[in-house]
């Protein structure tokens, strides 16, 4: 499934609209950027594990080149194997090759069940090894995986008034269709 939007549409606005249809645009930079900005920089974010970067979610662009030519990079179809892959050329070019005036982006089903886990480790190395194991396990519901080292946890406790164990910590978020999948993969 896909959605066609203007470059000034904000990510959160698109996701609010898509939610009423049971859908979402997956890439999730921590701010609320415009989709044109996300495409221009190939923005990613915390949900890259599940949904990929913006580059992987842009299906087609309408671009005005510096010479004033209007270029549609490709038809928004599931498979197209002919010609140059112009979409990927423009995504991440930061406007140097042309100005994006329209985007067609991939949208995903909005999964209703969410759960999280906070896992404390004795060292950053131990946490990193756990992340490698998580990636190898290819958990279908894992959306976000963030690591804070000890200094970051100490700072978070101080600045946010938290009481986290002051050790390297992984924060995990899972989304699934059914709660049992979310719970099983979290375990």
Structural class: alpha+beta
How many separate helices?
7
Spatial separation of the terminal alpha carbons? 31 Å
Order of helices and strands: EHEHHEEHEEEHEHEH
What's the overall geometry? elongated
Taking all Cα atoms into account, the compactness measure Rg is: 19 Å
Please estimate the helix content: 25-40%
Number of strands: 9
Characterization of this structure:
It is elongated, with a radius of gyration of 19 Å. Strands 1-5-3-4 form a 4-stranded antiparallel β-sheet. It starts with a strand and ends with a helix. Helices cover 31% and strands 26% of the residues. With 187 residues, the protein is of the alpha+beta class.
How do the helices and strands line up, and which of them pair or pack?
Layout: E1 2-5, H1 11-19, E2 23-24, H2 35-41, H3 48-51, E3 58-64, E4 70-72, H4 86-90, E5 99-106, E6 108-109, E7 113-120, H5 124-137, E8 142-148, H6 150-160, E9 169-176, H7 179-186
Short descriptors:
187 residues; alpha+beta; 4-stranded antiparallel beta sheet; 3-stranded antiparallel beta sheet; 26% strand
């Amino acid at each position: 499934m896909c959605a066609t939007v203007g470059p000034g549409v904000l990510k959160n606005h698109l996701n609010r609209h898509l939610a009423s249809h049971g859908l979402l645009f997956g890439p999730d930079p921590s701010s609320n950027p415009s989709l044109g900005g996300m495409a221009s920089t190939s923005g990613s974010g915390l949900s890259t594990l599940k949904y990929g970067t913006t580059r992987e979610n842009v299906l087609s662009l309408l671009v005005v080149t510096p010479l004033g030519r209007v270029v549609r990079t490709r038809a928004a179809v599931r498979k197209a194997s002919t010609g140059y892959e112009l979409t990927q050329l423009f995504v991440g070019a930061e406007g140097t090759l042309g100005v994006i005036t329209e985007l067609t982006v991939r949208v995903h089903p909005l999964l209703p069940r969410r759960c999280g886990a906070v896992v404390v480790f004795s060292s950053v190395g131990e946490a990193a090894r756990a992340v490698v194991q998580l990636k190898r396990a290819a958990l279908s519901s894992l959306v976000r995986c963030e690591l804070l080292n000890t200094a970051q946890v100490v700072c978070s406790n101080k600045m946010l008034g938290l009481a986290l164990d002051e050790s390297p910590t992984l924060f995990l978020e899972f989304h699934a269709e059914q709660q049992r999948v979310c719970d099983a993969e979290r375990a």
